[in-house]
Amino acid sequence: MRLFSLVGLLLIAVIFASCTTTPKKEGIFMILPSPSSVVISGISELSASDVEGLVDQAKSDYISGKALQESVDKSVTFTLDTSLDLKAEGYTLEISEDHIDISASSKEGLWYGVITLGQLVEDALDQDAAIPLISVKDEPALQYRAIQLDVKHHLEKKEYYYELMDRLADQKINGIILEIEDKLAFVKQPKVGSADAWSIAEWKELSEYAMARNIRISPLVQGLGHASFILKHEEYKDLRDDLTNDWAFNPLDERTYEVQFDLYSDALAAFPFAQYLHVGGDEVHTTGRGSGKSDLELQLTWLNRVSKYAEEHNVTPIFWDDMPLQNAGVYGSIFNRKLTEAQVDSIWTVNEPNLNKYVDLFPKNCIYMRWNYEMPETHGNNRAMKWFTDHGFQVMGATAGQTRWVLMPLEESNTANIRDFAKISIDNKAEGLLLTLWDDDSPHFELYQRGISIFAEYTWSGEKRSSEELNSAFRQRTFGSELAASDYAFINDLEAPVAFWKNALLDSRDRNRLKRMENPMQDAVLTLPEADSPGEWSERNKEKLAKARESQQMVDSVLVKIAASKKVALRNTYTLEVYEQVAKVTQFSNKSLLLLAEWDLAKTVEERDATKDKLLSLEGEWKSQMGELEKVYGKTRVLDKPAEYILDQDHHAHLANQAVKFSDWQFYVENLFIQKIKEGNSFEMTGDLKNK
């Protein structure tokens, strides 16, 4: 009887519990990039953890080459129907009470339907919420959505690139232009490859990994100009246009093409799925060794040769278009917002004949890439693009997520430029857009991720979200749902301190150009206060000190937000660690400046001596900070170049090209400042300070 009573009570408890189960919670779902249309009408009966298993299996099947439409799982149906009114990578996603339907006109569309389903599952699991009843119709605004991966100044660790391919796939990025320079171990021209270069087989393996995720990698092999990685070597000096300068090839030397074509051949072997061969061609003036030919003639001579090679090898050449526009005299109209449309049209009326004169020499199989990182919306930029299209040429735009920013990308990861160029490209029904991520000053790659997300949004969806909404979606996708709240937004707040940091410890100089100075510590690094002139230094630097105080307060706030974010982030806490290191680096400069002011304004000898001790202790603090930063950065990044690496002539003052050791270029200014503090005899003072 007692046993029966216990069983009966347990049964009643189970029945009671089933009757009082808490209703499933609705979640907040942020798909990135935004779908073309989405309607959520309630919550389904599907288990988020079960659907997570379906997503993982579908991804695994697609990557392995299996046809998703052949899936026999009863909870999901994949339909491949070429008659559907969808673009090539478009899809529909329908989630009912107990079933999921994904339809597309291409296998890539089914893949992207799975990607979106995976984001819904991730949000549901993050929030302990139900899978929604949802109807999605989605397709890309631009067909080609590619990022530039620039490895010329350093490499990441190999596993990082594989993880990056997965991240890019989750944002529906479908192309990479990989600027390879000397990071490929060329077989046909082995002297060009650096000691740390990957083999053809290693790059091919990454290319295959990316292609399985619908990301096609195409190489950029710099040519005509930007050729220092080749022409710095003794074996190639006779191919220089200017024998004293390692920047440009002589386009009239036949061996120039022998070398270039050998590099192309190895690069295409390393990236066998390439649809493009980006040949570079920007920022270069050549003389042809006094040939008497114009710059434009010489460039078109070279461009026709390399474009013919591309055609013969079944890839489409891409060429930066700036030099023909400069040589014709219309380039200035592109980068001047003050010009009216009438003024721009006048410039083109006068100078367009300089282009038209050579129009028949422009190869027709080439894509002319109109790069503009500052003001793509100008009438001059549109006129340039229109000239190419009006003459039957293919044109594609290039925006930027990173240009010459040193510690991290600024201007909200260049949001305005990315948005405007994407809108222009969509309105003009362009094929696609490239996001350049230059390694010239080489911030940590994790700091590019926000810009990539912004680019993914605008190229797939157009302008569907405000900047604040897009940044919230980025944080939710990257770190977890809780960080979507504005309380955890800190990246924009870090921008002003980073911009100030660049030259904060210098006297009206630019960090990038110190290596060219004979005595940078004396002539560029901040002049220290003098013991016999108390207060004069602080008065002279009052604006800089005001910025340091403002920056210090802002960075303190940022560090608090990062610490809070690390506690609740569900993934990608490493990204937060990198931002934390950036913030701490800027704070060191703020602290140093304010300590100098404290010493300069001290009221007593005792106060001044105490502050002097703090200043001298900066060396130990900086070494500790560098140890911490290099430990964090070094988790994914190969910090130093090979010991025997040959630096080139550094025509564009690329910080990352100015030393072999990471800290010797990235933090050259800080190291000089510490040395100046140690050696500065202005801190030596005895006697009564009040009498001075």
Automatic annotation (TrEMBL):
Please provide, alphabetically and separated by semicolons, the GO molecular function terms listed in this UniProt record.
Answer: beta-N-acetylhexosaminidase activity
Glycoside hydrolase family 20 catalytic domain residues are: 143-350
* Active-site residues from the entry: E283 (proton donor)
Q: Supply the SUPFAM superfamilies for this chain.
A: (Trans)glycosidases, beta-N-acetylhexosaminidase-like domain
Keyword hit for Transmembrane helix: no
The UniProt record lists the keyword Mitochondrion: no
Q: Which InterPro entries match?
A: Beta_hexosaminidase_sua/sub, GH, Glyco_hydro_20_cat, Hex-like_dom2, HEX_bac_N
Q: What is its EC number?
A: 3.2.1.52
Q: Which GO terms describe its cellular component?
A: membrane
Task: Quote any Pfam family the record assigns.
Answer: Glyco_hydro_20
Catalysed reaction(s) here are: Hydrolysis of terminal non-reducing N-acetyl-D-hexosamine residues in N-acetyl-beta-D-hexosaminides
Q: Which PANTHER family match?
A: BETA-HEXOSAMINIDASE, BETA-N-ACETYLHEXOSAMINIDASE
| Name listed for the protein in its UniProt record | beta-N-acetylhexosaminidase
Please report the organism this UniProt entry assigns to the protein.
Algoriphagus ratkowskyi
